[in-house]
Amino acid sequence: MNARSGRATIHDVAADLGVSASTVSRALTPQGTVSDATRRRVEEAAARLGYRTNSAARNLSTGRTNALGLLVPDLRNPFFAEIAKGAQNRARGRGHAVYIADTNLSAEAEIEAIEMMRRDVDGFVLCSPWAEDERLVAALQGVPTVVLHREVPGLPSVTADLHDGMRQAVSHLRALGHPRIAYVSGPAGSWNARARLSAYEAEVAEPARVVLGPVADQFEGGVSVADALLATGSTAVIAYNDITALGLVSRLTARGVVVPDRMSVIGFDGLDVATLANPLTSVSVPRARGAELAVDVLLRPGTVPTALPTQLVVRESTAAPQPTVT
Amino acid sequence: MNARSGRATIHDVAADLGVSASTVSRALTPQGTVSDATRRRVEEAAARLGYRTNSAARNLSTGRTNALGLLVPDLRNPFFAEIAKGAQNRARGRGHAVYIADTNLSAEAEIEAIEMMRRDVDGFVLCSPWAEDERLVAALQGVPTVVLHREVPGLPSVTADLHDGMRQAVSHLRALGHPRIAYVSGPAGSWNARARLSAYEAEVAEPARVVLGPVADQFEGGVSVADALLATGSTAVIAYNDITALGLVSRLTARGVVVPDRMSVIGFDGLDVATLANPLTSVSVPRARGAELAVDVLLRPGTVPTALPTQLVVRESTAAPQPTVT
DNA sequence: CTGTTAGCGCCTTCAG
DNA sequence: CTGAAGGCGCTAACAG
Q1: Which of A249, A295, A240 is closest to A269 using CA atoms?
Q2: Which residues in chain B are closer than 8 Å to A117, comparing Cβ atoms?
Q3: pTM for this entry
Q4: Counting C-beta atoms within 10 Å of the first and last residue's C-beta, which end of chain B has fewer, N or C?
Q5: Please, what sign has the CA dihedral across residues A238, A244, A249, A251?
């Protein structure tokens, strides 16, 4: 009996059965070699006594923690909430817990979270858009890590096929007849924002290219750039992500610019929240699936990170441009 | 040096300084009694060697984990994402980590999560709307716990002043001239849903009382009940929460019922997401603050749980009823 | 104020 | 297949 918590230990079930603690230990661990009979008896006694393995003790002894650390910049963004759920579900299935750290959109907090958790996890899944490559790698100290929706030299990473997503978005708008497709770029410091911008630039050559921003990865970011967008004379716009796109739509509507009649808007991410009001056309990026893949790369040696497919989902915020009423 | 992880241990910094391990331990723990001079030397050496305390070892030795468990039914709901953030920020400030478990809206998963984490945390903050009181208490095995947005006999709990919130909502609608105020109730199995329904019933007496549902705690739940609402002839409705309210608005709009002209809608929770499109009038319930209070009750003995204030936030989904056009 | 000693609960050689 | 012994890294008496 654990003196402090009053919980049963391995010795209690050993005593109960008249066997040694090592036998109980072996019976309770996958690679332990015990007779089937004793294994069953041990399992029964453990259940009866309410035994739960003390993971701190196991950790100390084995050097493994059976836990993964997950960093996300902001849990309020459903994009990351879904990643958290996906990672947890997958890791649980593989016998691992996931410790989530919300880093509050701060590079500093990303580094701190890594340093705090480093000893207590077997590996990291990092949604870490802000911290610099070198600081990340330094803080990691060699702990196995998969980067999600970012690339860091020397680390495996799981990213979405943004070029293909952007191609789908641009093709859709061009097919509708939009000559000038603007882009609202996300925060300059964010890897993902840079990658999405590059994808746009690859798809839309000068002189048709119209880049606005960078704006904050928030509703307000979209709001702030709407008027500038109107001034460009574009009839269609692709936004860094759905949240930004919603801000854009909000301000456009307030200005009397009807979406999609006077402005087609495409978001990025494919969040459910973007369908609540005026259902937004968006390039969907797999959230849970990306997280699951990242966890697999960490936990199943041999799993090779592959690009996540992106998919344009056409809803109601895109249409053919209307002839200007004069 | 830790053989496995290659990280410095307390012995390394002890050796480096020519002192004993216990001295280092004392220098590094709050209640340890060491001379200021050696404390400084130890801190310097620890920093220089990149020492990080191994929390498993400390845990094993002290019986405390410096971690809290937080259960939430669904991280995708911003209500809980904000609770998670609030709890983490507060706990971090008090030297504790927070392990979040998303229980996927399942009573079973709530119990399992508690049993999984019980040994690894010093206490729980439970947003656990589904599991039964007895099973919860049984699974907890005496681990210090605060229940958030629910009441469980024998456990301290932090809840919002729903009656006052409901009073504000109903008063607002009555002042606007609505004679019949309907209510869309949340899932029958959820404590919070029952509490909100009671608050409505306390505020609206028969025969004016119109209760719809129960519906799922989702956008679709609101969608599903909109037509029934119209059939009641009510001109105003209060929904179980914001997400449900948004579903309601969506379907009403699709039916050509303009909000707020033909139907006033009030949500509950006060989420930002409910302002993205047609800004929703809502009864705001403190999220982060409730989580912080719960953490304090756990970590600061003597903190007494107080009811969280609720506040009606009037936005654009409520107005005076329009005379029926015939 | 500091060093020595003895575990915390578990896993893992090593014998038998 | 099973028991005994040692140690993971740290803290907590107990001496000095």
Answers
A1: A240
A2: 97
A3: 0.93
A4: C
A5: negative
